[in-house]
Prior knowledge:
Largest sheet of chain A: 5 strands, mixed
Largest interface: A-B, 118 and 117 residues
Distance between the termini of chain A: 43 Å
Strand content of chain A: 25-35%
Radius of gyration of chain A: 24 Å
Number of helices of chain A: 8
Strand order of the largest sheet of chain A: 8-7-16-11-12
Helix content of chain A: 10-25%
Oligomer: homodimer
Amino acid sequence: MDSKKRNRRGFLRDSAALAGLAAGGAGLAKGQTQGTPTKKIDELIAYGERSRFVNSIRLPVAERHSPDEFGLTFHVLTPLQDSSGIITPSSLFYTATHRGAFVPDIDPREHRLMIHGMVDRPLVFTMDELKRLPYVSRIHFIECLGNRAKPTHKTVQETHGLTSCAEWTGVPLSLLLAEAGVQNSASWIVAEGAEEVKGASSIPLAKAMDDCIVCYAQNGEPVRPQQGFPLRLMVPGFEGIYQIKYLRRIKVVDRFYMTYDDYGHINPDPKVAALTHQIGPKSVITFPSGGQKLSGPGFYEVSGLAWSGAGAIRGVEISTDGGQSWKNADIRSTAHPMAHTRFGFHWNWDGKECVLMSRCTDELGTVQPTRAEVAKFWNEPLDKVRVRGSDNSVQPWKVASNGSVLNGLS
Amino acid sequence: MDSKKRNRRGFLRDSAALAGLAAGGAGLAKGQTQGTPTKKIDELIAYGERSRFVNSIRLPVAERHSPDEFGLTFHVLTPLQDSSGIITPSSLFYTATHRGAFVPDIDPREHRLMIHGMVDRPLVFTMDELKRLPYVSRIHFIECLGNRAKPTHKTVQETHGLTSCAEWTGVPLSLLLAEAGVQNSASWIVAEGAEEVKGASSIPLAKAMDDCIVCYAQNGEPVRPQQGFPLRLMVPGFEGIYQIKYLRRIKVVDRFYMTYDDYGHINPDPKVAALTHQIGPKSVITFPSGGQKLSGPGFYEVSGLAWSGAGAIRGVEISTDGGQSWKNADIRSTAHPMAHTRFGFHWNWDGKECVLMSRCTDELGTVQPTRAEVAKFWNEPLDKVRVRGSDNSVQPWKVASNGSVLNGLS
């Protein structure tokens, strides 16, 4: 770093107004050293950046470091171990797809959304037209069903990083459907995106008329390309594959349609198949979590996230003895329905080996199951249980006596 | 743009795995053209970016396009006309300072927060130590007192862009003060940042013990450098200058201390001087707003933001006839206390010239004043009223018959 003192007025006069000069803080905060001018001030004005000391990044899943050989499947994990609060920064929002790993480069002026099928008035909307309609802004999570497909991974980013949460803004789908005039015999919709593989999902009409949102904004700016720019369907509480990116078509139909995406939804009863994929109550401790290290005995704030596809989180409990006893954690954020909810628990670590767990309860009273309960449900041995669908069982983190944190399932 | 079709497998094999290839959408959405590979996929994985079609940026205030000659004063405006929901993206959060326009380059490992003065146990915290303490996550706005210093500007970015809203996470200041042991005769705190000019603000102890937060995170990641990385004091509802960036010292004292920042707070009664700078109920229509243009008569969603330093927004009214009549708008987001709240109003424009206005009411029942009421209060002519402190009067936008939107005050 350039620690040479510079005359600021001269500096501004002589150069292209570079920024990054620091306070000459000689007092308490030693870190306030002379800075390095690295950015043109115009860049700093237009669209600010994070500190050079902040390096949190997403990572691809360990089993696939780049898109598959067809360029279709790719999963990139949110760094939950670095998260604060409930909003996931858009730049760190997870992305998962089987429909084309390369993001469509869509000009929003050319994009259209068609609503057709069993409606009285088929409609086609431009983006400008959609933005002229009433809208809502809500905070909701999205989680990939495959989150925690391999429960033995080391870090919370690897085990649980396929969930993120954002503020979503857009037009209620119910409004668009009402405008189109849904016919009496209709019972499902099929929502289609514009990826190279025309993936689509069948969604019950009852859900479509309830709380779904045709979203054009995420965290206060247009939906990011990796999240479906310019339009993403939000289906709150359902697994990620329903949240159709690059939304371009909604067909109203009278039955469940099997689609490219339904590899996971094959069930004798199609309604059961689809509806079982509402995300169950789930929670995970993000600190301390696998791969982190405690500096020694003493007070720590156990921190984590809880969420449920069925509504708001009503409570979270913490165990510091591997599930033998549980104490109430505190809810540290607003508990929005179908949204990440931040919990905290003040813990005095005695320096002995122990196992930390969290479990949550949602507003319907459903309690997140332990791994033993899941094993019993599937009638499989505890150490070899293969969870079908979303694995929302309790995550144990083992704290070794040297402070190292390990996955209790690995 | 390169519209040549490429063999994807060959492309991946031969190149450095570039992204940006698009869906070959030949259907409804014409915009899904063949894309241009512009980014290495590693970059897209690590920290996502916005669409190349999204170009919303902050702007410096018109009267000062770069920091002043001393490098101290600078104001950069949020593009409210492009905003959605209530979260301001951290990259577009406004910044205003009189303490050094160049951001201190602080290494968080070296940063310290000291709490001293009239306390039983003076304390110094590292960042790691602060993060071991209980915390809260809350959504709050920050607004510069100088927001709307010149009410005749053209756009809503220019008139109202010195306000933004984010999710803030950190340790309640009351917890730190309780740990230090505030002495009975104390009544104020002085909070100091690490800028080159050691600016500070005096804050009533009652406020410090109420809802202030020592924040290390904003919108789910560390506080951005322009917002005070690594530590910012959140004083909910008070004007921006109290929200001390680069927080390094809190001194507990027994009186209001005059500081560098108090150019605006000189008043015979120091308590009045300080406390009058809680932000009053304020709202502004962001669409349609100055500089925008309606494409013709028809339905539009009037959209805007309301906020108050005194608590949550309870209601917003819209006038489409220059204040002669008012109708209730809808609240489109959660109305968090001391936070931007999104409102909407469905409006059928008949194509005639008209004046749009919004006014809000907060949870104390305080109603945002019209400009005429403000003029009467200050006993000045309506066209020349000079508002002292925060100008929270109603903003009129004039819609011309050709659809052009103009500032009704210019």
